[in-house]
Specification:
Layout lengths: L15 H13 L20 H15 L12 H11 L2
Length: about 90
């Protein structure tokens, strides 16, 4: 009757930082272990505005937060710090 488990929870809990890095790394198929918190989103990772908006939308969905338009994100660490500070 049940084709598959419906739970989407990870097998082992991940830290917020690990989850944020996974979301960022998925955007351009960068290995999460290669992401440095000091990496510039535009210069080092070559993300454009569309990439950043997509990352923000994914973070909002995953962490049930709202990111105001005026919040600046320049580095990977900026995303990690914001989500850590605002996630429930």
């Amino acid at each position: 009757m049940f084709a598959a488990a419906t739970s989407t929870a990870p097998a082992a809990p991940k830290t917020i930082e690990q989850q944020v890095l996974r979301i960022i790394s998925k955007r351009k198929a960068i290995k999460a272990v290669r992401l440095r918190r000091t990496a510039s989103l535009s210069r080092d990772l070559r993300f454009d505005t569309v990439d950043l908006v997509d990352i923000i939308l994914e973070l909002e969905r995953n962490f049930h937060i709202t990111v105001p338009d005026e919040v600046p994100f320049y580095t990977v660490g900026d995303f990690v710090r914001y989500v850590t500070a605002h996630a429930a």
